[in-house]
């Protein structure tokens, strides 16, 4: 028997409840690889899956946790053998398939990535889906011409998980980073990650019908969308790109016009980490091991245990979690 955070749903009321329980190997889903989980983390999707479900969870009881890192215990797939260190993000694990908030997980071999040299399992979960998404965003901006020295790169939602890692990576690569936050008390934290400029969120709150604004940004990693993205697009320099990774401010791009795209050649790049192909995942994890400053990563980390998760799930949905939460499932 081993511990897991199990979410149940009352069919009459529709309400969910989460608690740490003991389950056995026979309770796990059928798949090729069993992993002894060492660490997981907390993302916005995890908050939904721990709590109301958000339409992500198909069946109850359910074990959430969209990320995990650990050691292969059993494998019927030749690509992995007992003792291999692996990391998993995405593939709807923790949503449609039981996830990493347990001391053991059983998943498809196709969903795993070998842990890159230079990272341990704890560091991998300090990175997690948020960090992988941040690196995929930076790689996409680079693939579309972003280079140091071209001007400041804007990061919206900078104190969140993706924003924190993106800020640290971009600064490490030699970029000026302008960090947008609605939490002024996070200025010291963001500057320690490498931000050279702090931009209050209120500066992007107004929806305008101007076709264009002054050219300010050489690139952008945007976690917010909504009215903020509508304003940012109008402020991008000629031929630059915005990597869109989230919708904390709403799914609509309020106030957006076609003019930045056809008059300045601005690119809007969609970043998805869930179904990302294997080769690009490996490339991104190798870049993380090389380009993410581990001392900065450690400053983002908030430790947690399985029993902390019900409250953390509520907190992240309210925007009250800073940086990266690393969950020691064996503590």
UniProtKB/TrEMBL annotation:
The GO terms describing molecular function are: acryloyl-CoA reductase (NADPH) activity
Q: Name one Pfam family in it.
A: ADH_zinc_N
Limits of the Enoyl reductase (ER) domain: 15-327
The domain of life for this entry's organism is Bacteria
Recorded protein name is Oxidoreductase, zinc-binding dehydrogenase family protein
Query: In which organism is this protein found?
Result: Mameliella alba
Q: Which taxonomic lineage does the organism of this UniProt entry have? A: Bacteria, Pseudomonadati, Pseudomonadota, Alphaproteobacteria, Rhodobacterales
């Amino acid at each position: 028997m081993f511990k897991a955070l199990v979410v149940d749903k009352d069919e009459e009321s529709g309400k969910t409840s989460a608690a740490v329980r003991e389950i056995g190997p026979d309770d796990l889903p059928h798949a090729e690889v069993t992993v002894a989980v060492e660490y997981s983390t907390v993302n916005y999707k995890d908050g939904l899956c721990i709590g109301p479900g958000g339409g992500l969870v198909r069946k109850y009881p359910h074990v959430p946790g969209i990320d995990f890192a650990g050691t292969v215990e059993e494998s019927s797939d030749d690509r992995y053998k007992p003792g291999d260190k692996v990391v998993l993000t995405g593939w709807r694990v923790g949503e449609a398939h039981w996830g990493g908030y347990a001391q053991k997980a059983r998943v498809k071999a196709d969903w795993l990535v070998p842990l890159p040299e230079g990272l341990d399992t704890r560091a991998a979960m300090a990175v997690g889906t948020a960090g992988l998404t941040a690196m995929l965003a930076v790689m996409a901006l680079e693939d579309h011409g972003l280079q140091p020295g071209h001007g400041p790169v804007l990061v919206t939602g900078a104190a969140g998980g993706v924003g924190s890692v993106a800020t640290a990576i971009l600064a490490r690569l030699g970029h000026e980073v302008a960090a947008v936050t609605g939490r002024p008390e996070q200025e010291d934290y963001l500057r320690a990650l490498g931000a050279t400029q702090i931009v209050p969120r209120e500066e992007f709150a107004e929806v305008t019908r101007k076709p264009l604004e002054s050219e300010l940004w050489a690139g952008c990693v945007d976690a917010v969308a909504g009215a903020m993205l509508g304003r940012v697009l109008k402020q991008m320099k000629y031929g630059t790109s915005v990597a869109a990774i989230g919708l904390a401010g709403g799914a609509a791009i309020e106030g957006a016009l076609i003019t930045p795209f056809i008059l300045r050649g601005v690119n809007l790049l969609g970043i998805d980490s869930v179904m990302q192909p294997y080769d690009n995942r490996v490339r991104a994890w190798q870049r993380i091991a090389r380009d993410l400053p581990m001392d900065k990563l450690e400053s983002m980390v908030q430790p947690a245990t399985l029993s902390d998760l019900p409250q953390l799930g509520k907190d992240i949905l309210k925007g009250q979690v800073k940086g990266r939460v690393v969950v020691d499932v064996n503590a």
